[in-house]
UniProtKB/TrEMBL annotation:
E.C. code: 1.14.14.17
Keyword annotations of the record: FAD, Flavoprotein, Membrane, Oxidoreductase, Transmembrane, Transmembrane helix
Name this polypeptide is given: Squalene monooxygenase
Pfam family membership, one: SE
Catalytic activity: squalene + reduced [NADPH--hemoprotein reductase] + O2 = (S)-2,3-epoxysqualene + oxidized [NADPH--hemoprotein reductase] + H2O + H(+)
Length: 535
């Protein structure tokens, strides 16, 4: 009976708040875009590789240098190349990446892929449609489905091996005659009077070379060695992700992942191919066992395996025994804190990272690429570095709706999902699951943000207030005794202490009041002769 009162009170109050934020919960509508022809080969076109014999490149032969050919770099190179830019992309390793992160693309990210004309890059790599998650806690299930009813049938999330997807993007970019792709390690930026003119790098043979361009875009990933020149990095590692590949098994619900909430670590499972399931165990940084001496295998067998779904147990145990199958990746968090540097720009994980537990990184990266492409399109002359730098400052505000929404959700959910001996944290976890079970605008709104289809910070604020009302209501009903009032206050304190620091780090003004940021109004400079760009 008490639960019914909670639901009723929460629904009425939250619905009233909903009218104030109604526009925030409308989903991005998809307008049908034609698909490109599938790429036929998994080999790089030889004509677009760079074979340099000298030690420098002349000024004026390249419009834009891109450092890094991951998801962000390769997608950006293709989009700029399609617009007629002469792009040079330098990647430290052109072999297929072998990573355990960057394997989930939200529906919102897939739509960005279509906007860039790159949707065929998820073809022929055994990518799987992904429609949401089932959450498991204390024997109860909570289904979180992406709200795809208003979209065409092929619009959904995608899961795949990261390396296969990245390699397809590289091939697509290198297929353009005005995009060159070279293997090399960029060691430093070339600066002259505070303006970045290009890069120093070492090629495969170790020869030190230089490359020049009016604009250098750095997107060399989470282990970037150049970010310190372009931003104020403050990296936090709250946990490590331990990855396994499971075979000979199936998840309970086709095209859905599974999140198992329990002590000592949450477990995330999702398909990466038609025959493989990725299992990720989130382990707090201060408790990471060693892989080399067998402690990690023992930890997985004794502490994690008992929480695994019964239908996956045997495959989980077999995966632990398989040599080299246990891999560890630090889950880094870093808010974007760029400083304006004429001649250079920072994007992707080199600029901004969120916890990988929800897999939002590729969606943010592709959204950034779309924004940056659109900002660069009207520019016919990139030679005035200071003017271009001031104009591109708007990029950091325009990216906030998508990036801040996904960043905050990922970082907050990692804390909510993690086991804790604190009763208030445990109560927050039960409250979140109960909120999702309310259905309607509550679960729909959360899943819309998680899918990248509703990148609205105000929507995030609405659901936080609604969740707070619901959580306090659970504690106060059926009668608000002093102890229950105290528990309600603790609940609000814990919830606020988790959420508010992340909002502050993302920038309150840029998130909620972007129109008050001067850079938001920057118009394209009109200096220089017009070039005939392709569209």
């Amino acid at each position: 009976m008490a639960e019914q009162y909670i639901v009723g009170v929460g629904a009425v109050i939250a619905s009233l708040l909903g009218f104030l934020f109604l526009y925030c919960n409308s989903l991005i509508r998809f307008r049908g875009l034609s698909k490109l022809k599938r790429a036929a080969s998994m080999e790089f076109p030889k004509g677009n590789s760079v074979n340099k014999t000298g030690n420098s490149e002349g000024v004026g032969t390249t419009d834009i240098i891109i450092v890094g050919a991951g998801v962000a770099g390769a997608a950006l190179a293709y989009s700029l190349g399609k617009d007629g830019r002469r792009v040079r992309m330098i990647e430290r390793d052109l072999n297929m990446p072998n990573r355990i992160v960057g394997e989930l693309l939200y529906p919102g990210g897939y739509i960005k892929l279509i906007e860039l004309g790159l949707e065929d890059c998820v073809d022929e790599i055994d990518a799987q449609q992904f429609l949401g998650y089932t959450l498991y806690k204390d024997g109860k299930e909570t289904l979180v489905s992406y709200p795809l009813e208003k979209f065409q049938s092929h619009i959904s999330g995608r899961t795949s091996h990261n390396g296969r997807f990245v390699q397809r993007l590289r091939i697509k970019a290198a297929s353009l005659h005005n995009v060159t792709l070279e293997q090399g390690t960029v060691t430093s930026l070339i600066e002259d009077n505070g303006i970045v003119k290009g890069v120093h790098y070492k090629n495969k043979s170790g020869q030190v070379l230089t490359a020049y361009a009016p604009l250098t875009i750095v997107c060399d990933g989470c282990f970037s060695n150049l970010r310190r020149s372009l931003c104020y990095p403050k990296v936090d590692i709250p946990s490590y992700l331990v990855g396994l590949t499971l075979t000979n098994c199936n998840l309970p619900k086709k095209n859905y992942g599974a999140i198992i909430l329990g002590h000592p670590s949450p477990i995330i499972l999702y398909p990466v191919s038609s025959t493989e399931i990725r299992c990720m165990v989130d382990v707090p940084s201060e408790k990471v066992p060693s892989v080399s001496n067998g402690e990690m295998a023992c930890y997985l067998k004794t502490q994690v395996a008992p929480k695994v779904l019964p239908e996956l147990y045997n495959s989980f145990m077999s995966a632990i025994e398989k040599k080299g199958n246990i891999r560890i990746m630090p889950a880094k968090i870093m808010a974007a804190a760029p400083h304006l540097t004429p001649g250079a720009l920072l994007i992707g994980d080199a600029l901004n990272m969120r916890h990988a537990i929800t897999g939002g990184g590729m969606t943010v990266a592709l959204s950034d690429v779309v924004i940056l492409r659109d900002l660069l399109r009207p520019l016919h002359d990139l030679s005035d570095a200071f003017t271009i730098s001031k104009y591109l400052e708007s990029f950091y505000t325009l990216r906030k709706p998508m990036s801040s929404t996904i960043n905050i959700l990922a970082n907050v959910l990692q804390k909510v999902f993690s086991a804790s001996s604190n009763p208030a944290m445990e109560n927050l976890q039960h409250t979140f699951l109960g909120y999702l079970r309310l259905g309607g605008v509550f679960s729909y709104g959360i899943s819309a943000m998680l899918s990248g289809l509703c990148p609205r910070p105000l929507s995030l604020a609405f659901h936080f207030f609604s969740l707070a009302i619901y959580g306090v209501g659970r504690l106060l009903l059926p009668f608000p005794s002093p102890k229950r009032l105290w528990d309600g206050a603790k609940f609000l304190w814990v919830a606020s202490s988790i959420l508010l620091p992340y909002i502050y780090s993302e920038g309150i003004r840029q998130m909620f009041f972007p129109l008050t940021v001067p850079a938001y109004y920057r118009t394209p400079p009109k200096k220089g002769p017009k070039r005939n760009f392709m569209h």
